[in-house]
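Quick log. Single chain, no ligands specified.
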Amino acid sequence: MSELPDGWIVANLDDVFAVFQDGRTLHQGWSPQCERAPSGSENEWGVLKTTAIQPASFLPEHNKRLPEHLAPRPQIEVFPGDLLITCAGPRARCGIACLVRGTRRRLMMSGKMYRFRMPEQHVSPRYMEFYLQTAQARLAIDVMKTGGSDSGLNLTQDRFRRLPVPLAPRAEQERIVVAIEEEFSRLDAGVGALERARQNLKRMRATVLERSTTGDLVDPEPSSWRTVAVGDVAEVSGGITKNPRRAPRANPIPFLRVANVPRDGLDLADIHYIEVFDGELERFRLRDGDLLVVEGNGSPDQIGRSALWTGIIDPCVHQNHLIRIRPSDEVDPRYLNLFWNAPTSMRTIQAQASSTSGLHTLSTEKVRAISVALPSISAQRQIVDEASRRLSSIGDVEAVVDDQLRLTRSLRSSILTAAFSGKLVPQDPDDEDAAVLLRRLNAERASSNGQKPAQTRKLRTRVPA
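-> predicted structure:
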């Protein structure tokens, strides 16, 4: 931890708790029917999911109803001002902390959380929440995590209690909180404007795609337009089904999966291999200009998403959950891709994918039956050229917006770093030193429970001018 101003100290988190509770311990033995609340009152209660705890916000709607066999437990109810931190789960979730805000429903902490409270006269809960969001604290917490895999990590109580915290004088804590909130408010306003711009660009992109398929983007000869079925102007085929016999051994070939085909793009960062047997390569081999279509997805709006294969990997084959459309000479593959990603076309494809069973999936037969508005090949090329020009301009602006959004995230981190190194607000020599504050806190703790006062670390010197 860098040098801190006079009046600050570095303490362990354990030094500044008023209350610390482990959700896993508190949930043990929680089930006796004799503890049932009066009929109907349990409907007021919910158990927080760990997703309610976010780096910069508390989401009380992320809760589940109290199971019928469990009685409400007021001793694990969370209140505004409580600090919660996730103590188990995937790496991205384990160790996230936030301050509880107001809730309409009575909520209990889950067994995958720690809950702690600050003695507010000595330590600002909001100050502590902001500190736990810093890159410095996040790195220290990451080091504390234990577990065999990213999907099953734990933040042990003993380790977490030893987290070092830069503690400012109490009055300066409040000034820091106000300054951070003011800076974040300005950043949030900027982010809001950038997000609105991004949504406008998304609508502009959709408009270009839609107009590409209606004859409104350029002015081709109207009589050249006709409506045809995909199967009449393209070869439609499935791919290779993966099974144990296909483990790559003698003849491994790059193998595209659904994960490699986001909408209107290719993600080739993680390419798998599959065994291809004699005579299969030419049957399944992808060619430049093939359109790859996702046959099914858990999200209905992702069904039928497509991307144009550019031949960047050769040879390459594809799995059975990707449908290959190989256009004839009557169709420019780039135009077909524009058509496939236009809003009206997407709705048609989604409708085609639905079924009475509630499943949403495409098949080669369904794809062959989809109707395409098709102008002449020369008009298709005109449309592609104009659409590419407009989409490229939109993409350039989107890149600028994305850069600015990344900058705001970096600025947020820089503000927190400055705040907890004593550089965001000026120090006041009349403020009571944090060391005095902590000694009083420890004395109060010792007098109330007979514990030995916690030891503070050596004071740090003022940052050189």
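Residues 32-40, 452-465 have pLDDT under 50 and may be disordered.
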